[in-house]
Amino acid sequence: MIEERKNERVRVLGVQVDALKTERAVNLTIRYLEKHKFEYIVFANTPAALSGKEEESFENYIDEAALVLPGDSNIEDAVEAGTWLEEGKTYQAEYFRKLFTRLNKQRASVFLMVEKADQLSKIEKIIEEKYNRLQREKIHWQEDVSIDGLVNSINSLAPDILFICASHEKMSHFLKEHACKINAGLCCCMEEVVTDSKTDISDWMYSSKVQRFLTEIKNRISRFLHNVLFKKQMKQVQQQENTEEE
Q1: I need a labelling partner for 35 at 20 to 30 A (CA). Which of 4, 169, 188, 234 fits?
Q2: How many angstroms separate the CA atoms of 205 and 200, rounded?
Q3: Exposed e or buried b for every residue in 132-163, given b needs 16+ CB within 10 A?
């Protein structure tokens, strides 16, 4: 943890998140690049914060990050990022817009290391359309990819920014084991590439809410049918008693 920012962190779901405007976060990022000392920045999202709560490796991964920034709308709301973001903008998209604009002017280099093909396509499209002066290499980080070969590919470019998009388990393990071997200016870590949409509650959150809703509906139907069956049985018993009395 950087001492000068200790009081600017807000605890969200057990994770200390930096409450910084995007402009200041980008300025700090550039400062880290100028120091020529490998640092990494984490974009924390809700699923990672919840699933990583009890993991010591996740706690160390967060604590050792140079910056921990909002990675979804839920974390943004918790640090009140909406007070300085324009309507419809997301923190992550605004941060990378400002960072890539500056790096694009410098013809900086970026290495994309992404676990999901759709996420890789998304960030490639953004860079191609808006920041095509960036030098870039990419790799689809699948299970069969050799880690030694991956590190060698990164080092052959020696990028200004190593851009990793994968599960927090995969990223934290990779950085713990291989950060000392990486020749890159800075690493940005995230689980998902977030664009400018405030309706971007993650699929994980959405599916959980839908699942709870469907479970509740199922329980209500079950209780209703149980009550109907019980009343029917009671009516049959009453009719039988009346028949016997006659």
Answers
A1: 169
A2: 10
A3: eebebebeebeeeeeeeebbebbeebebbbbb
Rg of the Cα atoms in the chain:
25
pLDDT mean across residues, the chain: 80
What gap in Å lies between CA 78 and CA 191, rounded to an integer?
19
Q: For residue 104, name the pLDDT band (cuts at 50, 70, 90).
A: very high
Q: Any long-range contacts for 136-141 (C-beta under 8 Å, 24+ apart)? A: 136/109, 136/110, 136/111, 136/112, 137/109, 137/110, 137/111, 137/112, 138/111, 138/112, 138/113, 138/114, 139/111, 139/112, 139/113, 139/114, 140/114, 140/115, 141/113, 141/114, 141/115, 141/166, 141/170
DSSP, collapsed to helix, strand or coil, labels residue 131 as: coil
Count of residues for the chain?
A: 246
pLDDT of amino acid 231: 67
Sequence-distant (≥ 6) Cβ neighbours of residue 212 within 8 angstroms: none
Tokens of 174: 């990779």
Give backbone dihedrals phi and psi of 20, rounded to 5 degrees, phi first. Answer: -120, 145
